[in-house]
Amino acid sequence: MPPINRNAGGIDVGATEMWVSVPPDRDAEPVQQYGAFTRDLYAMADWLKRCGIETVAMESTGVYWIPVFQVLEERGIDVLLVNARYAKNVSGRKTDMLDCQWLRTLHTYGLLAGSFQPSAEIGVLRSYLRQRQMLIDSAATHIQHMQKALTQMNLQLAHVLSDVTGTTGMRIIRDILKGERDPKRLAGLRDVRTKSDEETIAKALEGNYRPEHVFALKQAVELFDVYQQKISDCDQQIAGYLRTLESKINIQAQPLKPAREKKKKRRNAPGFDCRHEAYRISGVDLTQIDSISESAALTILSEIGADMSPWKTEKHFASWLTVCPNNKITGGKIFQRQTRKSANRVRELLCICAQSLINSKSALGAFCRRMCSRLGPQKGIVATAHKLALLIYRLLKFGKDYVDIGEEAYERQYKERVVKNLARKAKQFGFQLVLSPATP
Length: 440
Fold this sequence. Notes:
Distance between the termini: 70 Å
Number of strands: 7
Structural class: alpha/beta
Largest sheet: 5 strands, mixed
Strand order of the largest sheet: 3-2-1-4-5
Helix content: 40-55%
Low-confidence stretches: none
Strand content: 5-15%
């Protein structure tokens, strides 16, 4: 097998040390160990440059690879970040020293595929949005602590209110922390939009206000407020950064079309116009696709960017997302079709979007229900996520608008396809399919 990358190196990245391998003819000691301090990383980059290395493959767990990646890119070295699952060594040869040599060997012969890395600008946006999601998850933890403290005091707010952190719930909780204990007065804080009446809420607020549980509730509320403020600060940072990104279209010449339907603002929705910013930096409106919300569109763009060139076709894109079957063939037969395991954030988001199509009256909703009835709920959701992935790829790749044909038109087209297939099968067996209305 001829070598593809003659000036290739391999790096095994760890928390405290780096093992680096270069071709044997480049240095008297072709395998060297470096520390994880910044000066060590620059020393490693200098050594690689002296050895004439132009590209390196490295594997890492966690986020240890990020500083190494950035230092090597600064020095003009092409970095291939490899999934360790796809670069396993022969059994019994698992050491850091051997791993870096094995990576170099595979990379020399072009046998490695690097993990997708967005552009530097999109990478910054991705970091901001991931930080925001982390803050939301942390705030949710303290909501659970609030509910636990209420339950310990036998305050059944969670059973009479749809959301204890809504307007009514937070009014009541904050008055409890101020010292109010009268159920009727607390129930009087009810918002007019609340379904439960004051009498029901008052019954739910008859509890045992033990001081240790009130203290736990107080701390949970304070921490919840802190995270809400941090989320707001994060929104301001994201909005400011989005304004610095280059527009793909002229907004005045191609203004954003009005939203198809006005939806109620969600609790954790960003404090800026996600739809407008996503349209401006991508040139297409992903929210045209049913189930893709404004925040989901921006999150998808922050993970993959608006440039689809890293994926040759929509099938490559679906495979990267792991929403297509992973066919394993032996003896000419497919013995396994299960999708690959993955922690891909876009895949997770598309599956969540697909679940919201179950009751949709759109063509995608009809497709989702048909897939779920045929394959089962779990596989049907993945199949719908695959459909969404293809639509996103086409919009970003070709810039075309998505038009929903509606549930009735989709069912009519599906019926025509079924009839056409039946006619073809009948012809294969020497028969002719004759269409006639069914008699009752």
